[in-house]
Design a protein that fits this description.
Blueprint: H1 4-18, E1 28-30, E2 39-41, H2 43-51, H3 55-67, E3 72-78, E4 82-87, H4 89-101, E5 115-119, H5 131-149, E6 153-157, H6 165-177, H7 200-216, H8 218-232, H9 236-259, H10 277-286, E7 290-293, E8 296-299, E9 313-316, H11 324-339, E10 343-349, H12 353-365, E11 374-380, E12 383-384, H13 401-416, H14 427-444, E13 452-453, H15 456-459, H16 467-483, H17 497-519, H18 523-542, H19 551-574
Parallel strand pairs: 5-6, 5-10, 10-11, 12-13
Antiparallel strand pairs: 1-2, 2-4, 3-4, 7-8, 8-9
Helix pairs in contact: 1-3, 2-3, 4-17, 6-7, 6-8, 7-8, 8-9, 11-12, 13-14, 16-18, 16-19, 17-18, 17-19, 18-19
Bound molecules: arginine (ARG).
Arginine is lined by residues 119, 122, 124, 159, 161, 328, 346, 348.
């Protein structure tokens, strides 16, 4: 289905043309004064300059044509030249039925579907997932679902940090603690030597310990660097140990992500880009882009238009090791070969913007992808505590994601304690869903680039713009539908103002999806879902569906709230939020 403003723009453009004006003047937008009209077109003002004519005269001409269309209940010209449009009830009903019958629920499908790789999640092996990774997972997952719902082919890649210094730190520390492990000896044999059993708990303890130690102990720091370098250069025992670390870490990560209902199509890591580094280096050399500077190999990425200094990007350090930028550049080569994408989106903390600017500019200079391939950094802000500083544990440490999930699940359990709707057995799984709805909606309602305050009480509130309010709305509709289960459901008219309001919101949904997709901003989906729920609440207060005597009216209302439910669930699904039957 086309979005309503697109459809109306086509009609109004044709009307402009019919009157002898440029069709481009017929752009229709949603009205910002719903008390006056539903849609508006301000093209007559630009027309006035083009045709040296008063804007209202142009608008009058166009209005006369539009009145013949039969879909507008009101076509009004307001001086000096606004064209205000309102649809007839019949046409609104027709559009609503179309949404009801549409297998995409009115979500406009891309005219030219694209292949999009979304780089999100970005956890690091051997380091616990912390809340910094939460936003990437929540926002990236939602963008993936949104782009898919619009008909694109989308691949989510977790881009695991599995190749950097953190692994060297863990290896060096394990070596000090367990020097007898076979994997540390020079004559290690991968075929015959046994590997130690590792656990996620051990890794989570070892990494912060080793990281702290490396800051106080130069000797240890050097060992960690050597271990990293030797690993990256294929030392057998280290590779075998690294594979064990990877196995344990990935299993732990997957279990955490599944609690978030976030999943990735690819579990590629930085290490998978390693084999493309020689090709990258060759391209940079052939194109005469890389040069030596203080022993390192760098590429200039400065532009004349830069207002702030833009340092060259380092692609190889003086100790010959590759770094973050090298990996990201090599990964671009890998993605081009694997997916030939139209777009690559990076959902990463906005503090990494400089890094990505450097990487993208270097990739462009080296033509690593065709010029039309979009490389876009979708930076997100920080989740803060009530003190306005990055959210921490009570004792001031970095909050682990698993602890956060537990905290919100406990808060939800407390809320469900006295609920008569939920069986004892279901409480735990309900609590998880409620908690996730609260956290995800609380995050996604903010534009991704903004910092926000994690306020669990607010997120858990059953009123206002919260995930819980939306789950309540769905559960309320569920219970009405259960009680009216035997009644007919069929859209057949518009009986009250409240329905008109709901239908308009439903009809505007296509535009919301288009906008969210263009802006890569799920917050518009949150807002629209909330608006739909509010419209439903008004409707529900004003009309008594259950005891309505007029059968036709009742049937239409039941069908309408069914559709509202479908649409709210669709919105929530795109946000990665699951609903519950009853609460
Ligand atoms: N692992 C990185 C971190 O924790 C994030 C990775 C983001 N993606 C990328 N292609 N660099 O900061």
């Amino acid at each position: 289905m086309k979005s309503i403003t697109k459809l109306l723009t086509e009609k109004v453009s044709a009307a402009f043309e019919k009157c002898g004006y440029d069709s481009k003047l017929g752009v229709v937008t949603a009205s910002d004064r719903l008390d006056l009209c539903q849609f508006q077109c301000n093209g007559a003002f630009s027309g006035a300059k083009l045709y040296k004519k008063a804007p209202f005269m142009i608008a009058d001409d166009v209005a006369a044509v539009l009145k013949e269309e039969g879909i507008f209940g009101k076509v009004e010209v307001v001086k000096p030249g606004f064209l205000n449009l309102t649809l007839t009830d019949e046409y609104m009903l027709e559009l609503t039925k179309e949404i009801e019958a549409d297998k995409f629920n009115g979500v406009p499908q891309a005219e030219k579907p694209q292949t999009i790789v979304i780089d999100y999640g970005g956890p690091n092996v051997a380091k616990p997932l912390h809340i910094g990774h939460l936003r990437s997972a929540i926002i990236g997952e939602s963008l993936k679902r949104l782009a898919r719902a619009c008909g694109n082919t989308v691949y989510g890649d977790v881009h695991l940090g599995d190749w950097g210094l953190q692994i060297g730190l863990v290896i060096a520390e394990l070596n000090e603690r367990y020097p007898d492990w076979k994997c540390f000896s020079a004559d290690f044999n991968a075929e015959t030597d046994a590997m130690p059993e590792l656990t996620a708990d051990l890794l989570c303890e070892v990494y912060p310990f080793a990281s702290k130690k490396s800051k106080e102990d130069e000797d240890f720091k050097a060992k960690a660097h050597t271990a990293t370098f030797e690993l990256q250069n294929g030392r057998e025992g280290y590779i075998a140990l690294w594979k064990e670390i990877l196995k344990v870490s990935i299993a732990d990560l997957k279990s955490n992500y599944s609690k978030l209902d976030v999943d990735f199509d690819y579990w590629y890591g930085e290490s998978d880009a390693d084999k493309f580094i020689p090709e990258l280096m060759q391209i940079l050399e052939d194109k005469k882009l890389s040069y030596e500077s203080n022993g390192a190999l760098v590429v200039d990425v400065e532009l004349e238009s830069d207002k702030a200094p833009m340092p060259p990007v380092i692609v190889r350090k003086s100790d010959n090791s590759s770094i973050y930028a090298t990996t990201d550049l090599a990964t671009i080569i890998q993605r081009r070969k694997d997916f030939n994408p139209d777009k690559i989106w990076y959902v990463v903390d906005k503090r990494q913007e400089l890094h990505f600017t450097q990487v993208f500019r270097c990739a462009r200079r080296a033509d690593l992808v065709p010029a039309e391939t979009e490389l876009e950094f979708l930076g997100f802000g920080t989740m803060n505590g009530s003190d306005g500083k990055p959210y921490k544990t009570r004792d001031g440490g970095v909050m682990r994601l698993s602890d956060l999930i537990q905290t919100v699940t406990d808060a939800s359990l407390a809320r469900l304690e006295n609920s008569s709707f939920v069986n004892e057995d279901d409480k735990e799984s309900y609590a998880q869903k409620l908690g996730m709805a609260a956290v995800k909606f609380g995050d996604l309602i903010n534009h991704r680039s903004k910092d926000y305050i994690f306020d669990l009480d607010k997120f858990m509130s059953a009123e206002g713009k919260t995930g819980i309010y939306l789950l309540y709305t769905v559960s309320r509709i569920n219970s009405i539908l259960k009680k009216t289960g035997d009644c007919k459901a069929e859209l057949n008219g518009v009986y009250t103002e409240a329905e008109r309001d709901i239908m308009l919101k439903l009809i505007m949904t296509g535009d919301t999806f288009n906008y969210a997709m263009e802006e890569k901003a799920p917050n518009y989906i949150c807002e629209n879902a909330y608006q739909l729920a509010v419209s439903f609440s008004h409707f529900y207060h004003e009309n008594h569906i259950m005891d309505e005597q007029d059968e036709a009216k009742k049937a239409s209302w039941i069908a309408l709230i069914k559709l509202v439910r479908t649409m709210i669930v669709k919105h929530l699904d795109i946000l990665g939020i699951e609903t519950v039957e009853n609460m």
